[in-house]
Structures are given as C-alpha cells and as structure tokens.
Design goal:
alpha+beta, five-stranded antiparallel β-sheet, two-stranded antiparallel sheet, 10 helices, globular, binds adenosine-5'-diphosphate, binds magnesium ion, Ser/Thr_kinase_AS, Protein_kinase_ATP_BS
Length: 279
C-alpha cells in the first residue's frame, strides 16, 4: 500500500481535467507505479460542484475488477484532495480511438461486457456514474477496461432518489433525453442514464466519431437536445451485425423505463456471444 504522499515521486502528467491534474507517480520504496489525481481546493466552495461529489468515498468503498482501484486518499487542511489509483498503462478508450481508429465488433463486445459488469456492480449499490464516455474508461495493455473518474457521480438510496438537477452533470454529448429535458426525468430510472451514455460511447468506438452526426461535426447543446429527444436512431454501417444493431437499440431507447438494465444487457446475444469469449 501507499502510506504517505511524500513517498510518491511525480513522473509526468497523464491528464488534465475540470478539477485538477492526474500524474503518473512512482513509489520511492517499492518502485511501484500509480496514478495520482490531485484535485484543487477552490477558495469559493459554493462554486464547485466537486464538493458535492463522492469520488473518494466511492473509489474507497468499491471493489470490482471493472472499477479503478483506489490505494489511498488524502485531504490537506487547505482542502486539496489527492487520490492514489492503480495505473492503467494503455490510457483511455478515447486515446486508443484517436491513435488506432475504430474498434472491430469483437472489441466492442469485450469492452461492453466489462463496462456493463462495472455498471451492474455500481447500480446494485445505487451508485450512478453520470459521466460514462471514452475518456473516462481506462485501459491496460491486455484490453482490461475499468470505469474511472467518479468526479460527478452520485450515491442515492431508493428512499432518497436524486432530483433532476442532481443528475444534470457530466458531458452533454453523452446525456440521455431525460437528462437534457427535465419533462422526461423519472427518478425511478436514474441508472438508465448510464446505459444511454454507454450506448453512445460504444457506437462512437465502432463508427469512429460522435454517432448522431456526420464525422467532424461537433454538436452544440441545442442540437443535442433535438437529436436525442426527437431524432432518429443513429444509422449503422451496413456491415454491422444484427446482434450489434439490436444491442445498441436496447441502450438507446428514448424512454428510460424501456432501456435495458446493465444486468439484462449482460445476457444480450451481442455480449454473450462475443464479449465473454475473450474475457
Ligand atoms: P477529470 O475529472 O479531470 O476528467 P479523470 O479521472 O477523468 O479526471 O482523469 C483525467 C485523465 O487522466 C484521464 O482521461 C486519463 O487520460 C488520465 N488518467 C486518469 N486516471 C488514470 C489512471 N488510473 N491511469 C492512467 N491514466 C489515468
Ligand atoms: Mg474525465
């Protein structure tokens, strides 16, 4: 384990985000490599949604091969936070997509199986990730995929379901219709928000770009509301299998109560037939 932050030597920056910086670090005594996420203290705490999040709490309390492991968490008197995590040596699905181009169906199924297993674990504890997208899915050289970045996640027991504004966080492009339009919001189906984001993510990895628009086009917020709320399902390349088409449409039902759950999707033929083979 890691007992003191001082024992860690910074090697390089792995990523910058909204609330801080992630470093690759080495433990001086053991030479073990970790990722260290340092979250800035904000002098004006009321302006910082991070304060309401449960990132540290969730990372410390979860134990799944499909969720990034936390090996230590620290908080300074000034309010700066640091989280030591296992290091994922192949980066994120976003960097892999940019480096190597679109993934074949067998990889999509294998990634889908792993992320669904992670989401199934989280949803069973009433934890909602709320920011599933390629840059928050970490990968190692063996194509093990783990869910990371719980910066906007929520823990919400059934007795205290989130209200609309609690889940209006994350990244617009991956937000489900009921998160972009408060009239569609239903507190009984919050987990379905993560399933929509996963559907968009997997389709993006398959076609190589944001799937609701032609390559190169970046949607603005208003377009996204119209596309996800009223638009047709994204068109699929003609070589896509029936299983993949069916799977994606189960993730992208507009009504959250019709979307399949993580547990149901784990036994979808696309995942059972292809995802598990290589696991
Ligand atoms: P943010 O809230 O700033 O987006 P993330 O937790 O998503 O924070 O981390 C930002 C980036 O840092 C990621 O997109 C990834 O490139 C890199 N990163 C984060 N955690 C790890 C890790 N455990 N191993 C390797 N790289 C990581
Ligand atoms: Mg992130």
């Amino acid at each position: 384990g890691v007992s003191k932050l001082l024992d860690l030597e910074k090697l390089c920056v792995l990523g910058h985000g909204n609330y801080g910086t992630v470093y690759k670090v080495r433990h001086r005594q053991t030479s073990a490599i970790y990722a260290l996420k340092v979250i800035r203290a904000d002098p004006d705490a009321s302006q910082q949604p991070y304060q309401q999040s449960h990132e540290m709490k969730i990372l410390i309390s979860t134990d799944s091969p499909y969720i990034i492991k936390c090996l230590g968490a620290y908080e300074s008197l000034a309010g700066e936070k640091a989280i030591v995590m296992e290091y994922m040596d192949a980066g994120t699905l976003d960097t892999l997509l940019k480096a190597n181009g679109p993934f074949p169906e067998s990889s999509i199924a294998h990634i889908g199986y792993q992320v669904l297993s992670g989401l199934n674990y989280l949803h069973a504890f009433n934890i909602f990730h709320l920011d599933i997208k390629p840059s928050n899915l970490l990968v190692d050289k063996n194509m093990n995929v783990k869910i990371g970045d719980f910066g906007v996640s929520k823990i919400m027991p059934e007795s205290d379901p989130p209200d609309y504004w609690d889940i209006y966080v994350g990244t617009y492009a991956y937000m489900s219709p009921e998160r972009l339009d408060s009239n569609m919001y239903d507190p009984r189906f919050v987990s379905a928000a993560d399933i929509w984001s996963l559907g968009v993510t997997l389709l993006e990895l398959y076609v190589g770009h944001f799937p609701f628009l032609p390559p190169g086009e970046k949607p603005n917020w208003m377009q996204l509301v119209l596309i996800t709320r009223y638009g047709e399902a994204p068109s699929m390349p003609k070589e896509a299998s029936e299983e993949l088409r069916g799977f994606i449409s189960c993730c992208l039902h507009k009504e959250p109560n019709k979307r399949w759950t993580a547990l149901q999707l784990l036994s979808h033929p696309f995942i059972c037939g292809k995802g598990r083979l290589e696991d």
